[in-house]
Design goal:
This protein is mainly α. 85% of the residues lie in helices and 3% in strands.
């Protein structure tokens, strides 16, 4: 593989493209991240940050190639590169967190919509539970009334000493009227139960439609899974991922710039081109 790289410029070209893509992306996110922090002078900050990003890469290359000849300036230039790396990382962090905040705000709107629907559903559910209890009580009352009508017996002894068993017509009429009222009331409750059940089902479908058709909810699905898996708030998970990106992004760009200088310097030393 080493001989292949020495004979061909393919790997060097790939290294150049990779270096400029990483460094360019880091610079882009940093510049616009810093400009959002200083929105009052956005255009001016973009110019300043862009100039510093280019100077940082050039300085890193200069220090690598001229470390022994730089004299005391190498210490200041090294410190400047480190400080600029921190500034770039802060800009990237601000850019990414700002982007997530926009997503979080959109998700918050969706969650509020779902919460309003859930409140309506809870009210319907409370009514449904109440009418189910009423229906259960009425069913028991209807059974008792029917048993009362069936067992409506009066016994008495006639003049001949015989025991006579008969029904009380007034009691039967009263129980029958109560039974009819109870049956009618239960029928009305059944209608209300069907209506409430339909309302709850519609609300559940509405929630499902909002959650399934929302792009933001789908995008942060992996983050939600990680939050549930680690039992950490989603903001903490996002902060972890952002810090990982920040710690790798700009240091990798500087390291690749230095590596590219070494690769080009080695090529020149070998007299190949």
């Amino acid at each position: 593989m080493k001989k292949l790289f020495n004979r061909s410029n393919g790997f060097i070209l790939l290294m150049i493209l990779s270096t400029f893509s990483v460094a360019g992306a880091a610079a882009y996110y940093s510049v616009f991240g810093l400009s959002s922090l200083f929105a009052g002078a956005r255009f001016e900050v973009i110019i300043m940050a862009a100039a510093l990003e280019v100077a940082k890469l050039v300085t890193a290359s200069y220090l690598h190639n001229n470390w022994k000849r730089a004299g005391w300036m190498k210490w200041y230039l090294s410190l400047a590169v480190v400080i600029l790396m921190v500034i770039t990382s802060l800009g990237i962090y601000g850019f990414l967190t700002s982007a997530y905040q926009t997503t979080a705000d959109q998700l918050g709107i969706v969650e509020k919509q779902v919460k309003v629907i859930e409140l309506k559903k809870d009210r319907f559910q409370e009514q449904l539970d109440y009418y189910n209890i009423e229906k259960s009580n009425l069913t028991k009352s209807i059974l008792d009334l029917r048993n009362g009508i069936s067992n409506n017996r009066i016994q008495y002894t006639d003049t001949l000493g015989r025991i006579i068993t008969t029904q009380s017509s007034s009691t039967r009429k009263l129980l029958t009227k109560e039974l009819e009222t109870a049956v009618e009331t239960r029928a009305n409750i059944n209608v209300k139960l069907e209506s409430l059940t339909d309302s709850i089902t519609k609300l559940e479908l509405q929630v499902l439609d909002i959650e399934s058709n929302n792009e933001v909810a789908a995008e942060i699905g992996p983050l939600r899974y990680m939050a549930e898996l680690t039992e950490k708030p989603m903001n903490v998970i996002v902060n972890w991922f952002t810090l990982l990106i920040v710690f790798v992004f700009d240091p990798l760009a500087i390291a690749m710039v230095i590596a590219l200088n070494k690769l080009l310097g080695r090529k020149d030393d070998n007299g190949t081109g």
